[in-house]
Amino acid sequence: MERKERRTGPDRGEVIAVLRRVVAENGSDFLPQYGLATLCMLAIAATTAFSAWIMRDVVDQIFVEERWDALGWICASIIAAFVIRGFATYGQAVLLALVGNNIVARYQTRIFDHLMRLDMAYFTATRSGQLAAQIAQNVTGIRDLLNMTLAAVARDAVSLVGLVVVMVWMDPLLSLIALVIGPPLVYAVNYLMRRLRTVTREAVEVNARLLGAMQESVQGIAIIKAFTMEEVLAQKIAGLIAYAENRSNKIARVSERLGPVTESLAGFAIAAVIAYAGWRAAVSAEPPGSVFAFITALLLAYDPVRKLARVQVNVERALVNARMIYEILDLEPRQEDVPGAKELVVSRGDVVFDRVRFAYDGHRPVLRDVSFEARAGKTTAIVGPSGAGKSTLFALIQRFYDLDGGRITIDGQDIALVTKRSLRGAIAYVSQHPYLFEGTIRDNIRYGRPDATDAEIEEAARLANAEEFILQQPQGYETLVGENGVSLSGGQRQRLSIARAIVRRAPILLLDEATSALDNESEAKVQEALERVMKNRTTLVIAHRLSTVVNADHIVVLEDGMLVEEGTHRTLVKKPHGVYARFYRMQSQKAEDLLEYGAGQSLADGQGLEENIEEKRG
Ligand SMILES: Nc1ncnc2c1ncn2[C@@H]1O[C@H](COP(=O)(O)OP(=O)(O)OP(=O)(O)O)[C@@H](O)[C@H]1O
């Protein structure tokens, strides 16, 4: 399905559709709570209407007829009305808050689950900080939408109807005068709502960009400081801040325009009623109770009218938020399992690329008819210059993207036809930049396989040469790592990620060798750990070290998305004009030169493989 293009403002039909959807997806689960909240709101409406109604008896019976016996029941009923109103207000507020919080939690869960299902293409095209900020801003919109709509209908609209009934009952003619303000008010509200739609969306988007940019700046703080980018970034952020402030001011100015409109219209209505009632009192001898009750009802009606007008505006804003949430929830994951997909069964672990073609954008090919076999239990090294498509091969084996042509099989099973879960369960991936999640060292290793026992985790750490440094940490395996935890060195992180791969017990290993040089001792430990994990597994390694390539069982040379050579080190170096042989000669020469000048072992070991291939091409 094509992803929807962003539009600036929803039209009315769409707005109603979103509202319907929010109600359909949530309303029925909270019927008892909403029912009770509605009862509370009806009680508020009834007691409000009653307090206007009783004014006639207060004036006529107590002040005009001086019936002191009525004083008792009138006062008692006023107290009762206000006490009921107090409890009902409390009840509805608490009920709506509880339901609202639950709705927020439900949407957060839904969004997270959905994000986890979305394909890699979505995440490469989306900025993480911005996404998080947008979700945080919008998710409360859905809660507000339901609560505000309910409050508007059950409390304010019913209160208003009750008060209008009292007004008409007490004095139909005065009611007509007062209700004249209705049409201009409705017109003003509609006008403001239209203006608000676009500006609300802009405000959410700019705030998300701003928060996202701030988060990214914090994440990249080392680079910012190293390149003294502080000022440039501060200027960029200042621009966003100014725009966000401008949008918020615009929202305030537009939505607060409602205040003067409602206040002025109400002033006219009340003044007109008082003027006419005053004139009528002067020319007729009617008891004044009804007029007092009418004026009380009119004054009391002002509050629900004001709230109803405002709720329209606020609902409009909440709808924009809700719509943005649904834009995420409606994104179709592009790589669902095919219907009836089987579990991948790995018996040996042979991985075969068969005329694989792929382009990220559907046009510019990144891999062209790539065919090779990574044999079971053996190590296949993939070499090639930067941008040749090595990482893309890895992404495709894990089915992060679907192929444009050809197929990839594991033990004869097309990976496009098996479940993604079983496919990825058969693969352990050790990345060049090991990622540590917020949590303990033990948790981080356990992400390899959630049901791994503590003993298995410790065994994996030993095999990965990680145990020694883990035990030196303040809380050993329970030491917190990740953003706010203990900082680990590059080599230590790599060994933890190797332990994670060992715990996974997967028959296929994808290894993206680190390009950044570690010190010799750390390098040796990582290397030793890798050799252990590679043993008896089908290993595909994006090789950056000459020793890895030389020792590999099979070498695949990629260039510009094409497989240009393959074989073992022995066969490939024998082809005098071959790409690999030239690269190797150059690499060895370089290593010798470097040794002559006393350069470090890791460089002599073959760092800079890609650069050499690039040189060869040049
Ligand atoms: N997510 C993506 N969307 C679009 N194009 C991409 C994406 N990832 C990589 N590419 C492009 O695909 C080509 C191959 O990239 P790939 O990362 O596979 O190369 P590589 O050989 O692994 O390079 P390196 O060694 O520098 O990591 C490059 O031209 C790159 O610009």
From TrEMBL:
It is a multi-pass membrane protein. InterPro entries: AAA+_ATPase, ABC1_TM_dom, ABC1_TM_sf, ABC_transporter-like_ATP-bd, ABC_transporter-like_CS, P-loop_NTPase, Type_1_exporter. One of its GO terms (cellular component) is plasma membrane. Residues 351-585 form the ABC transporter domain. CDD domains: ABC_6TM_MsbA_like, ABC_MTABC3_MDL1_MDL2. One of its GO terms (molecular function) is ABC-type transporter activity. Its main location: membrane. Keywords: ATP-binding, Cell membrane, Membrane, Nucleotide-binding, Sugar transport, Transmembrane, Transmembrane helix, Transport. It is found in: Cell membrane. It holds the Pfam family ABC_membrane. Belongs to the ABC transporter superfamily. This is ABC transporter ATP-binding protein/permease. The lineage of its organism: Bacteria, Pseudomonadati, Pseudomonadota, Alphaproteobacteria, Hyphomicrobiales.
